[in-house]
Amino acid sequence: MQTTQELYTYEILTKEQPDLIQKAAECLARTFIGVDVSGKWVQEPMVGQLNIAYDDFYNFTKEYLDSTVEQGYCAVAQDIHHNVVGVLAGDTNAPEIIGEDIFEGSFYDMNVILRVLEDVDKRFMEDYKKRNGKDLEDGELLHLFMLGVIAEHDRHEIIQQLGNRLIAKATAQGLKGVLGEATNMKSLRVMEKYHNMKKYKDLQGNYIVHKYEDNSKLNGIPANIADGTYIIIREL
Hints:
InterPro entries: Acyl_CoA_acyltransferase
CATH topology: Aminopeptidase
Largest sheet: 8 strands, mixed
Structural class: alpha+beta
Order of helices and strands: HEHEEHHEEHEHEHEEE
CATH superfamily: Gcn5-related N-acetyltransferase (GNAT)
Shape: globular
Number of domains: 1
Number of strands: 10
CATH architecture: 3-Layer(aba) Sandwich
Strand content: 15-25%
Number of helices: 7
């Protein structure tokens, strides 16, 4: 019996690995758009609810990885055949609030997701400023942006290993914490269990959440799958 450690190898990508970056983007796009893994349907709820095509989402993901990979916070898991079966991608940029639709054509519905993320990010940054007396700057927090796992086996082990590498690196580089936007119950539970991330409470003691039931484009998402996008955090 092979151990998980032998089944999968892990590494942090560099920009000198275009083939792996492409495979990582494919893995992420497949998990977000929807993929059958061992008879279970894996999909990001907002993407499932909206009209988003694989090619558009792949291009978005690939662009993100290309622009952030040199920061050193994109980790991949490969199986023994060198297929990328897990990706956790992040960056150390402070979240950017654009405040207007930037996607068009067949990718127009991506603006809905962008607005949800900007809503929670903006409220987090306002709370951060009140607490710290200054704006959140680039290089202060590790922002975990995308997680995708298409492995048939040991999915939680992969999530643990990928996160451990990025969080260890963030700690070594002196970052203050790890930030994420959990868009569904499953990712929330996994990040709580394996990486000690918790739902963030603002100074009033309220969770920062964008409730799907209040969003006309997303209120079809079943509440037992996801009730909203939450800011999650872990201090380092």
